[in-house]
Amino acid sequence: MMLKPGDIILTKVQYTDTFDIKIRPALVLFEELDNVVVAGITSNLKMQGVSLTKKEGAVKDSVIKLNYIFTISKTMISKVLFHLNQKKKQFVYNELSKRLKLLQ
């Protein structure tokens, strides 16, 4: 499976407060040596992040949680659902860049 930045995938995700695993959507940020860095996606619209709409391909209106970035093994991915358009990818990049500039 070839992954590209901007792919929305279905993957196994471990909850942060338990050892339970659930299948969840995520945004591929990049892949290196079969490790995939992703941002979690939630349908809880009260969460902060970048909106993702049904018009863009989501099953339901959702939020890309840029405060929930983690690494998964490529083997944990079930499938690619769709790919973000260039405008949305640029918006995500800009939002991530703002947060990373705080490291300076």
Q: Separation of termini?
A: 36 Å
SS content category: mainly beta
Number of domains: 1
* Beta-strand share of residues: over 45%
Determine and state the CATH class. Mainly Beta
CATH topology name = SH3 type barrels
Q: Largest beta sheet: what is the strand line-up?
A: 4-5-3-2-1-6
Percent of residues in helices: 10-25%
Elements, N to C (H/E): EEEEEEH
Total helix count? Answer: 1
Q: Can you walk me through this structure?
A:
The protein has one helix at 86-100, and strands at residues 7-14, 21-32, 35-42, 50-52, 62-73, 77-83. The protein is mainly β. The chain has a single domain (7-103), classed as SH3 type barrels (Roll). A hairpin with a 2-residue loop joins strand 2 (21-32) and strand 3. The chain is globular.
Question: Secondary structure elements and their pairing?
Answer:
Blueprint: E1 7-14, E2 21-32, E3 35-42, E4 50-52, E5 62-73, E6 77-83, H1 86-100
Antiparallel strand pairs: 1-2, 1-6, 2-3, 3-5, 4-5
